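Supplementary Note 2. Why include the ligand at all?

Several targets in our set were suspected to adopt different conformations when bound, so apo predictions alone were not considered sufficient. For every target with a known small-molecule partner we therefore ran a joint prediction. The input for SAJ is given below.
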Amino acid sequence: MKACFMGLGYIGLPTAIIAAKHGIQIIGVDINPKVVEMTNQGELHIIEPGMQELLQEVVTTGQLKASTTPEVSDAYFMVVPTPFKGNHEPDISYVEAATRAVIPLLKEGDLYVIESTSPVGTTDKMCDLIFGLRPELRDKIYIAYCPERVLPGNVIYELVHNDRVIGGLNEASTDKAIEFYSKFVQGTLHRTNCKTAEMCKLTENSSRDVQIAFANELSLICDKAGINVWELINLANKHPRVNILQPGCGVGGHCIAVDPYFITAEFPMESKIISTAREINNYKAFWCAEKVQNAMLKFELEYHRKPIIAMMGLAFKPDIDDLREAPAKYITTKVMQSCNNADILVVEPNVQEHNVFKLTDYKEAYEKADIVVFLVAHSVFKSLPHNDRKVILDFCGIYKK
Ligand code: SAJ
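The joint prediction is reproduced in token form.
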């Protein structure tokens, strides 16, 4: 069995590695020659615990090879980014380009799968493209949509153990895709059609976005009402059927802050809660930046000098070193811009150095600062002593009970 993975990013590369580890011959394709070169040298270009050793192993045994062009295989997987354009319209041009690249290689009996998060109807569009150019393959190849669900930081475990949803163009396609994924997935493989599988992925991340927005909205209300939001949520969650998530300084990463737009762009009239949740979560980062700016002004009026501020955390969530689309980064930039970069100590304990921010050790920054702003709930911050003489802005519940 030979499989071709189009895209060696945060999902494509780990999936290719795990599949290779389970005996499938893998050709991993990426348009970036640097990624291809690093992968062939057994060097991981993404950040994911435990993955480096696995890559080294499958490259050494020859199970995985990277290239800038696809090769004739038995199965083809589209695992490329689906960003959105300026107006939040989904951009499926990478899926289309990857599909066009494999169309000339397709032969009878092959499997073609889209894993990229995609707007509803993308698989049907790619079918039209494939059969438009290769009409002789109609009913002769298998086509399915199968989204990934792994949590960055826990990919090795989740790729194998999570349940997956597999939506085939027809029953035979679903069967063929299930046959492939069952080579390395131990979770249940749930059957459906392409459209439902596409919508399922968007629904999962939108559901989380809506739930986080609820928590963030509560945090705004509680701030005005003088109520500790962390205590409130903890108490409300004692109800057997209530499970509120945690507020933070916004929603980051490449998934939850993006995927809901794939629904709102296509169904603007119907997706009221989903679009409002996006607005609330975006607004939360803006609100945090304003809170910091107000605290700075208040300090200056009271002490007649500029405060030293510690911005604690840049990552998009706790205990990772991934800064992609991180609200903490946005807030820090906004605060720095408002005071000519003066007296701001930027902290990210999970990153050695950064090309924009000069990083300070978290203990040193906490010690020196007049105003401490907790942006990300990294575990190491929780051991810092509570100092009543400092102004503490705790946006992520470091000191929650
Ligand atoms: N966040 C909160 N409060 C919470 C939980 C999260 O503010 O209670 C924030 C985080 O700080 C972060 C953002 O939400 O900024 C997203 O973090 P996350 O841990 O919720 O999710 P991701 O983006 O790391 O991964 C998600 C997962 N989807 C769901 O949990 C429904 C993952 O399973 C998906 O595979 C991934 O998106 C993806 O690739 O789509």
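The pocket of SAJ is lined by residues 148-152, 204-205, 208, 212, 245-246, 248, 251-253, 255-256, 316-317 (CB under 6 Å). The domain at 227-394 is CATH 3.40.50.720 (Rossmann fold). Comparable summaries for the other entries are listed in the accompanying table.
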